[in-house]
Each structure stands twice: as C-alpha cells, then as structure tokens.
C-alpha cells in the first residue's frame, strides 16, 4: 500500500514547470519540501505528524522516488543529477535557485485555499534555502530552514552562502524586520550546513531563531529525527499560523 494513499494527489504548473503535489489535513497550510533522495517514508511521516498537529500539509514531489524506501544507491544517483539540473544551484554562490519561482507560485495557490494568516514552509537539506526564497512572497509567514546544504560548502564563500541572490536576501531581511522571523534547525557539527547559520544570524539578527542540536547528525526531522527539532518546528508553526485564529 502506498504511504500516500490517503493524500490527495494534484499537480501544480507555473513558471514553465510542473510537478506533482500531495495534500492532506485541514487548518493552516504548511508546504514541506523534501530532501534528497526523494519523497521518502520519513518525509511523509513528518508530513503526517504535522497533519495530526492540526495543519493542512502539501508535499511537492520534485525529484527521486516517492512513497517507497529509497534503494541504498539512490542518493548516489540523485545528487549528481541535482548538480547538473538547472532547477537547483548546487555550486553557485549568490544566486537564487530557478525553482523558487515555481515554489512561490505554489505558496500563493496553497494560501488561497487554506486557513490562517499565511502559510508555513519547511525546506530540508538541498531544499533548505527554498524556505528563504519563498518568503520573498508575503503568502509565506512561517519559514523553516532545516539543515540547509546548498550550495555545497566547498570553500568559505559557498559554506557561508544562503542560496539567495543579493536582491532576495535583502527582501528576506526586510520581511524579517517587518516581523516575520525565520526558524533554523541543524546538528551543530553537521559540516554540510557550512557557516550559513552564522550568515543568517548576522543578516537577520534576532529575527533568526537558531536551534542547534548536539552531535553530527544531518536530517533533523526525518532520518536523524530529534524531538527537540520537531518540537521547535511544530511550536513555531503553531505560533505563527494559529495564534491569530
């Protein structure tokens, strides 16, 4: 049985792109953008957890497998493809990934059919920076950056880069100054996240809520799930999306 059997399948087209989506639950909406290698059972489980917490959850499927345990070699196959695709910026610093346009359109579409003052977004790993790129659009009022891994931290510049153009970073800083905080979660010694939490703290000040976990794990909400990270994310989403209800 598919783990997505109880989710409503859809497809969103925008910005010359089209990707499948899966939706479940009611209440304020949260878009959960999966990590590598795909829309795995662990990501779906996290989505189900948010549904149980009172949210309408949307899972876009951007790459890799869906609703099935990934094969042991799948990450080794998916990551090189992401390095070559034009949708992501795995190596380029100071740029917003082209896929951000499609994701912002999805955010507007989801917000139009959901409760609450806006929507939440959770980006993870290679999609971690997308939560920042999406909050350029005012529909996003609860952005969560979980273990952001792009661009790959090869050298100091890339390690500090937050996967945004200068214009988008300025727009994010402006939204934070206007009262839209950003939550970031990662393992303290996760090398792939580079020093970008330091960058966010420097640029966003107190508007960046920094949650760092002990250890060297990576996937804070899924494969290496930590209750402190999950509790912080659920609490942040509730505060931002439900407190005005």
TrEMBL record:
Which residue intervals define the domain Dienelactone hydrolase in the entry? 26-146
Q: Name one GO molecular function term.
A: hydrolase activity
- Pfam families for this protein: DLH
Q: Which keywords describe this protein according to UniProt?
A: Hydrolase
Name-wise, this protein is: Dienelactone hydrolase family protein
């Amino acid at each position: 049985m598919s783990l997505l059997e109880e989710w409503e399948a859809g497809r969103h087209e925008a910005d010359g792109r089209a990707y499948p989506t899966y939706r479940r639950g009611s209440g304020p909406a949260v878009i959960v953008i999966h990590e590598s290698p795909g829309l795995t059972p662990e990501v779906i489980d996290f989505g189900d957890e948010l549904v149980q917490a009172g949210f309408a959850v949307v899972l876009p499927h951007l790459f890799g497998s869906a609703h099935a345990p990934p094969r042991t070699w799948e990450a080794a196959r998916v990551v090189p493809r992401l390095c070559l695709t034009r949708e992501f910026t795995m190596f380029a610093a100071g740029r917003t990934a082209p896929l951000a346009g499609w994701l912002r359109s999805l955010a507007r579409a989801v917000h139009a059919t959901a409760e609450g003052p806006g929507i939440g977004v959770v980006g993870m790993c290679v999609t971690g920076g997308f939560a920042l790129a999406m909050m350029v659009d005012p529909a996003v009022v609860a952005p969560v950056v979980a273990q952001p891994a792009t661009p790959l931290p090869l050298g100091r510049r890339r390690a500090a880069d937050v996967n945004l153009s200068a214009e988008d970073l300025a727009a994010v800083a402006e939204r934070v100054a206007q009262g839209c905080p950003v939550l970031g979660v990662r393992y303290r010694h996760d090398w792939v996240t580079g020093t970008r939490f330091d960058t966010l703290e420097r640029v966003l000040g107190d508007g960046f809520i920094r949650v760092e976990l002990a250890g060297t794990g990576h996937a804070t909400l899924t494969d290496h799930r930590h209750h402190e990270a999950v509790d912080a994310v659920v609490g942040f989403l509730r505060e931002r999306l439900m407190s005005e209800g």
